[in-house]
Amino acid sequence: MPNVIVVGLQWGDEGKGKIVDVLSEKADVVARFQGGHNAGHTVVINNEKFILHLIPSGILNPNKVCLIGNGVVVDPGALIQEIKGLKERGVAIKNNLFLSKNAHLIMPYHVAVDRENERLRGVKNIGTTGRGIGPAYCDKAGRSGIRVADLLYPEIFREKLDAHLFHVNFLLEHLYKAPRFHTEEIYREYMVYAEALAEYIADTDIIVNSTIAAHGNVLFEGAQGTLLDIDHGTYPYVTSSNAIAGGACTGLGVGPTKISKVLGVVKAYTTRVGSGPFPTEIHDSLGEHLRERGGEYGATTGRARRCGWLDIVVLRHSVRINGVTGLAITKLDILDGLDSIKICSSYTHKGSLYNEFPKETQIFEGCEPVYEEVEGWKADTSGIRDFKKLPEAAQSYIKKIETMLGVDVHLISTGQRRDELILLKEQFNGS
Ligand code: GDP
Ligand code: IMO
Ligand code: MG
C-alpha cells in the first residue's frame, strides 16, 4: 500500500493540516517527523475549528494511530495541554497516540535562549515563534540534548540536566545577563510531565515500520515548509529542522525505499510569517485584501502573515528537492473576484535573469520578480467540488501551474471545511 508524505512547498501555512485531515480517512498511521509546537495546523470539521501543534492532524479521524517521531522536538507541557484540550472537545486519545523515545525535549532554558538570541539579533531577528525550537535542535546536534526516554529514568534525567545546566547557566549569566535555571525546579516539573506522558512513550520506528510491512497506509505530515528548511530554505531565515520530504525518513526511521508518493501543498498565492526575503510580497492594499480574505494570521502566534503572489521560481526548487509526485493547491477561493492575477516566473538581480532560486541569501534578498499576468475570475469558487464547475479562468490558472511546474495537480481546496475540495487523484489507490 502507498506511503504518502505531505509537505509544504512554500513558507509554511499552506493548508497542510486540512489536506492531512482529508487524506487521513484512508490512512492507518499518521506521523509527524520534524518541527515542534511552532507548527499550527488548522482543521475545520462541521464549522468546528481545531488547531493542532504537535499532534498529527490524523487524530481527528477515529481509529488512526498517530505518531510523534524522533525528528520532532517536544515541549512536554505543551503536548499535555494539547492532549487535554482535544480530550475536552471529545477527541478520543487512548492507545492511538505514540511519542518517540528518541525525540528531544524542549526545556525551559531553550525558550529563554530563543528569546535572548532574538533580542541580540536586533533588527536582523528571525521572527521565531519563541517556542525554543532552534536552541532545542542546537542541543540535539551538540549532543547535549535530553530525550523523551530520559523522562522514564529520573536519575539519568537529573544527571543530564545538571551537567548541561552548568553550561547553559554560564551563558545566561555572562552572555545574555538573564536569570539562571535551577536543576531541582526543572526536575520536579518534568517528573510530573513524565508521569502524564509515560503511557504515550514508545518505539515509534517499530510501529511505523511494522505498519508498512503489514501493507498498511502511512501518511507523513510535514510541518513548516520547504523554504523554512534548515538546509534548503532561505537560511538563516528558516526553522531548525528538515521540513522537506527527506526529513520524513530521518525523522521517523523509515527507509527511502518505503516512500511511494510526495504530495506538495501549495497555497494559490504565497504567505510568510516572520522575517526574511520574500520577492513576491505585495506591499499595497491588495496584500491587505488577501490577508483579510484569507484569514492570514498565524495559527500559533496570531501574527499577521505577509502576503504575495505565487512564486514559480521557489516552487520549481521545492518540487525538485522534495521529489513531488502531485500537487495540492489550497485557498483557490481566496483569489475570487480579482481582475487579474500575477505569477512570478523568474527574477532579475543586477541585470541578470534567474530562473532558479538563488542560494546566496544576499542575491535572493535583492531579487525583483518577473511576472506573467493572467485573467482573474469574478465568480465564487468556495465549496466547489467539481473541476469543471470552476470558472474557466480558475481552471486555466490551475493548468498553468501544472505546466510551469511539470507536475499534476491531484487536489484543489476551495474552502476551510473538509468537504470543500476537488479530488482529482486518490493518494491511497495503488502504489
Ligand atoms: P498549515 O500550517 O499548513 O496546516 O496551514 P494553517 O492551518 O496554518 O493555515 C491555513 C489556513 O487556511 C487555515 O486557517 C485553514 O483552515 C485555511 N484553509 C485551508 N485550505 C483552505 C481553502 O481552500 N480555502 C480557505 N478559504 N481556507 C483554507
Ligand atoms: P506550520 O507547520 C509558518 C517560521 C517562524 C520564523 C521561522 C523560525 O504551521 O506551517 P522557529 O520558531 O521555528 O525557530 O521560527 O520559521 N515558522 C513558521 N511559519 N508556519 C509554520 O508552521 C512555522 N513554524 C515556524 O515564523 O520565521
Ligand atoms: Mg500553520
What CATH architecture of the largest domain do you see?
A: Alpha-Beta Complex
In percent terms, what proportion of residues is strand? 15-25%
Any idea what the CATH superfamily of the largest domain is called? Adenylosuccinate Synthetase, subunit A, domain 3
Q: What is the terminal-to-terminal distance?
A: 6 Å
| Coarse shape | globular
**Low-confidence segments:** none
CATH fold assignment of the largest domain: Adenylosuccinate Synthetase, Chain A, domain 3
Structural class: alpha/beta
As for the number of domains, it is 2
Strand order of the largest sheet: 9-7-5-2-10-1-11-15-19-20
Mind telling me the CATH class of the largest domain?
Answer: Alpha Beta
**Number of helix segments?**
12
What is the radius of gyration?
22 Å
How does this structure look, described?
By secondary structure, the chain is of the alpha/beta class. It has two domains: 3-90 and 204-423, Adenylosuccinate Synthetase, Chain A, domain 3 (Alpha-Beta Complex); 104-200, Adenylosuccinate Synthetase, subunit A, domain 2 (Orthogonal Bundle). The protein has helices at residues 16-24, 76-88, 108-121, 133-141, 154-176, 183-197, 204-213, 246-250, 285-293, 312-322, 361-365, 392-405, and strands spanning 3-8, 29-32, 41-45, 48-52, 65-68, 73-74, 97-100, 104-105, 201-202, 218-221, 261-267, 270-272, 306-308, 310-311, 326-330, 340-349, 352-354, 368-375, 409-413, 421-423. The strands form five sheets. A ten-stranded mixed sheet has the order 9-7-5-2-10-1-11-15-19-20, with helices on both faces. Strands 14, 16, 17 and 18 form a four-stranded mixed sheet that branches. A two-stranded antiparallel sheet has the order 3-4. The chain starts with a strand and ends in an 8-residue tail after the last strand. The model has no long low-confidence stretch (mean pLDDT 97). The structure holds guanosine-5'-diphosphate, 6-O-phosphoryl inosine monophosphate and magnesium ion. Magnesium ion is lined by residues 12-13, 39-41, 299.
